[in-house]
C-alpha cells in the first residue's frame, strides 16, 4: 500500500472551506506533521472546530478569501462544493498548485481494501447495502465519504484487514490524483450537476475518475444496461464486472424471477427482498457484486436483504393514513431518480415535486407519469413542472408554498388506495439547506395529518 509520507509530499497545505470534510482534512494533515492553513468565509456555528484546529497548530483565517492565501502553499484541499471558478481555485491552477479534495487523502491513508461507489442515483443505498453485507459476513468494514463521516477521518484509523466503503460524488472525484479503489462501482450516468460541471462530458469525466488509476488487478462493477456507462468503461484498465437486470451474466451480477445471482451462483431469493422498486434491484445487484468481491458470504447478504427497508429520504416508507401510503423520496434531486421512484408503484399516485431551477426542463419525466393522477408543485421549478403535467395529460395540478403545505393538499385531494410520493426531481437549495431538511419537513407534516 502507498506510504502517505511519500505519496503526499506537500508540506504546506491550504484547506479551503471548513465544513465536515475540511475539518477532517486539516486534522488529518496536522496529525501527519503538515503545516496547515484553513480558510472559511464565516465562523458561524464553527467556533469549537476552529478552536480545536488552532490548538493543534493550524492557522485559521476567516472572512473574505484573497489570493494571498495561496502564498507559500504547496497544495490546495478544497471543499467539494466550492466551484472551480472560485478565484482561489483558479489562481492555484494558474500557479500549478495541485487542487484536490479530501477523499484523495483517504485513498492514500487507507491500508486495506478500498471500495468506491458512484453514480447519478442510488449511491447511498448501494453503499449502505455493501457495507451491511460485509458487516453481516463478519468482515471488518467501515463506511464513509459522501454518506456521512468524512473519508480521511475513517481511513486514518483502518488496518490492512479492514474494508472501507466510500460513497463518492462527482464533486469529490473531480479533485483526485492518485486515488485508487480496489473495487469501484459505477451505477448509472444521467445528466446532473451541470451547473457545477457545465457539460455532460465534464460530469462523465469526473465520475470516470473513480477507475482512472485502477489496473487489471482491480475491479470495476458497472451497469451493463446503461449505454453511456458501457462507452465510458471502455477506457478502464480494471477487470470489468457487469450487473444487469435484463439478462444472465457469466461474469457479473443478475437476477431472474426467483433469485439474485453472482455469476452462476444463486445468492438470495427474490421473495425475501424487502426493498421495493425495480431500480432497487439494480442497487442490490451492484452491492452484491462489490460485497462478494470483497469477501461477503451469501448468508450475510441474505440477512441484509431480508431486513433492510431502505435509507432515510430515499423512497422511504412513512406510514398509511386512511388507505393512503406516504413515501419520502426527498433525495430524488434529478429526473432519473424521480422516474425510478414513480416506476416503483402501479397504484394511482399523487406526486409532490419541485425545487432549485438548474436550467433543465422536465419533458423526459412524462413517460414515467402514467400512474400520476395529480401533481403538487413548489419551489423555483413549479411552473416548469406544471407545463410537464399538461404534457402528461394530468389535469389536477396544485401549487404549494412548501412541502408541508404540499402534504396537506395531497391528503385532501387523495383517496384510499393512493400513493402520496414526495420525489422532487430537483435539488432543495432554493428553499432548504439540504434534501434531508426538506424530507424531514415532509415526514413531520405527514405525522400531523391524522
Commentary on this structure:
With 450 residues, the protein is an alpha/beta fold. It has three domains: 10-100, 3-Layer(aba) Sandwich (Rossmann fold); 103-307, UDP-N-acetylmuramoyl-L-alanine:D-glutamate ligase, CATH 3.40.1190.10; 316-446, Mur ligase, C-terminal domain (Protein-Tyrosine Phosphatase, Chain A, Alpha-Beta Complex). Helix content is 34%, strand content 21%. The chain contains 17 helices and 20 strands. It has a nine-stranded mixed sheet with strand order 7-8-6-9-10-11-12-13-14. The chain has a six-stranded mixed sheet with strand order 15-16-20-17-18-19, sandwiched between helices. It has a five-stranded parallel sheet with strand order 3-2-1-4-5. α6 packs across α12. The radius of gyration is 22 Å and the shape is globular. The mean pLDDT is 92. Keywords: ATP-binding, Cell cycle, Cell division, Cell shape, Cell wall biogenesis/degradation, Cytoplasm, Ligase, Nucleotide-binding, Peptidoglycan synthesis. Cell wall formation. Catalyzes the addition of glutamate to the nucleotide precursor UDP-N-acetylmuramoyl-L-alanine (UMA). This is UDP-N-acetylmuramoylalanine--D-glutamate ligase. Residues 117-291 form the Mur ligase central domain. It comes from Terribacillus halophilus.
